[in-house]
Amino acid sequence: MTRLTLYTRPGCHLCEDAVAVLERIGEPYTEIDISGDRELEADYGDRIPVIMLDGREHGYWRVEEQRLRRDLGQG
């Protein structure tokens, strides 16, 4: 089971930054494009990117790398 989910949309520079941080952390993640999905747009549209850890919202707009590493058990 993938612990991390990243909600994004095309053309989002903060989303690109979030992907770079997640790639650097090295944990597998699922990226979900919210564009075209009314429910996801309503839930996350104002806060993209949104990072979920174990099904719970961990953060939005910017990935707090040290906090995420800590919560993943990476120190």
From TrEMBL:
Query: PROSITE patterns of this UniProt entry?
Result: GLUTAREDOXIN_2 (PS51354)
Q: Name one Pfam family in it.
A: Glrx-like
Organism superkingdom: Bacteria
Q: What is this protein called?
A: Thioredoxin family protein
- Record organism: Catellatospora methionotrophica
